[in-house]
Amino acid sequence: MYIARVLYPVEVLGPGMRICIWTCGCPHKCEGCANPELWEVDESRNIKIPVLLDLIQRIVSDNQVNGFTITGGEPFFQKEELKALLASLSDWSEDILVYTGYYKEQLRDLDLEYISVLIDGPYIKEKNNGLTLRGSSNQRIHILDERYKELYASYLSKEHSRLQNFLDGTSVISVGIHQPDFAETIGQRMEKRGLIEGGTQKDG
């Protein structure tokens, strides 16, 4: 399965402390996408599901994990692999939130097995209004497992759209729902502080 990254604890893409998994490969290629580097399939990121599960087992064994969030890329680009992964993740937590650029009506009910919450629809830059959990207002939150209805209602009433940063070696991964001009704004700030020149990161 093509996996770009696995991060924990993510607290801005669903309630609690979550393991968040980003997949590679996306046919939508939405304008203004926060993760355009994940559009293409990268063979160097092809990982066998048992290896991925072993990594997750190590996280779960030593930490409080309240749920999983899967985004991308487009998770349903690898539909069969996704279903196999979801089946295994549900052994640890059945609170599994999945983002997709498809609308729910385009997916089969069988594809939604093991998913408790689905956030659907393509990202539309002009409709990015800073909503909690959603990149743009056309996207919908579907509570597929009624057991989580109150939990997510409470989360959405109290939580606001915010970002969470993770250090990855010498780079920073910003997680959450970004404003449409986020990348440009960060680039301008870094250039102003002398961290980059002409869009290129300075050595050291």
Structure overview:
With 204 residues, this protein is of the alpha/beta class. It has a single domain, classed as Alpha-Beta Barrel (TIM Barrel). Helix content is 23%, strand content 23%. The protein contains four helices and ten strands, in the order ββαβαβββαββαββ. The strands form three sheets. Strands 1-2-3-4-5-6 form a six-stranded mixed beta sheet, with no helix packed on it. A two-stranded antiparallel ribbon has the order 7-8. Strand 3, helix 2 and strand 4 form a beta-alpha-beta unit. The longest helix has 14 residues. The chain is globular, with a radius of gyration of 17 Å. The C terminus is likely disordered.
The CATH class is: Alpha Beta
H and E string: EEHEHEEEHEEHEE
Strand order of the largest sheet: 1-2-3-4-5-6
Number of strands: 10
Number of continuous helical runs: 4
Class computed from helices, strands and strand pairing: alpha/beta
- List unreliable stretches of 5+ residues: 199-204
Kindly state the percentage of residues in helix: 10-25%
CATH topology: TIM Barrel
What's the number of domains?
Answer: 1
Radius of gyration: 17 Å
The rough form would be described as: globular
Give the end-to-end Cα distance, rounded to a whole number of Å: 34 Å
Q: Mean pLDDT across all residues, rounded?
A: 90
Oligomer: single chain
Please name the CATH architecture: Alpha-Beta Barrel
Q: Beta-sheet strand percentage?
A: 15-25%
Reported for the largest beta sheet, the result is: 6 strands, mixed
